[in-house]
Specification:
The chain is mainly beta. The protein is about 10% helix and about 30% strand. It has three helices and eight strands, in the order H-E-E-E-E-E-H-H-E-E-E. It binds a DNA duplex (13 and 13 nucleotides) through strand 3, strand 4 and helix 3.
Length: about 170
DNA sequence: CCACGGATGCGCT
DNA sequence: GCGCATCCGTGGA
């Protein structure tokens, strides 16, 4: 599922316009056998959205920033995909303002950068993508890009699992 | 109440 | 490429 999300559009309606871009990097966090997953210790107030139905958003805060996940399994399972990077495409000027950065290379090149550029906070935690009209994941028809799997970034446990997915032939 | 760690990013070199 | 600022949530007293 994390690999399938690569290439999708990730779009956000904020301040009267669509902003966002194409997903070029994701990481999967599993319900079982994954010591790096927030779901590993069961449901808490913070991670309860991760145990919601598929297509629910799980937004958590870390290092005084926010990260956006999409739940991938049915209710009470506890598996999600972290959106790690976008290729910025829509509403670049607004994203630059929200980020306080003009360098396109530092606009949506990390999970917390994405949330800042798209105006996503924990207020969006628990939102259902199927019924939400301010965040939208849309399929992208292009099939010319190759997805590469590798180890995840920034974690200390379960580093060996190849659950990070990136485009291997995208600029 | 408070200490501490974290699925990070900035600012330099 | 790397050090460290930053601050919220969590868990233990």
């Amino acid at each position: 599922m994390a690999a399938q999300l690569i290439g999708h559009w990730c779009l956000r309606w904020t301040e009267g316009q669509w902003v966002g871009g194409m997903i070029i990097e994701t990481e999967a966090y599993l319900a079982a056998g994954d010591e790096a997953s927030h779901s590993r210790c069961g449901i808490t107030k913070r991670n309860q959205s991760m145990f919601g139905d598929a297509a629910m958003l799980y937004v958590y805060s870390i290092h005084a920033k926010y990260c956006l996940n999409v739940v991938t399994e049915r209710r009470n399972v506890g598996s999600a995909v972290l959106i790690r990077a976008l290729w910025p495409t829509y509403g670049i000027e607004l994203m630059q303002r929200l980020r306080g950065q003009t360098d396109p290379r530092r606009l949506t090149a990390g999970p917390a950068m994405i949330c800042q550029a798209l105006g996503v906070t924990t207020a969006d935690d628990g939102i259902d993508l199927m019924t939400c009209d301010t965040i939208r994941f849309a399929r992208n028809p292009r099939r010319d890009l190759v997805v590469h799997a590798g180890p995840r970034i920034g974690i200390s446990r379960s580093r060996d699992l190849p659950l990070r997915f990136v485009y291997s032939n995208f600029p």
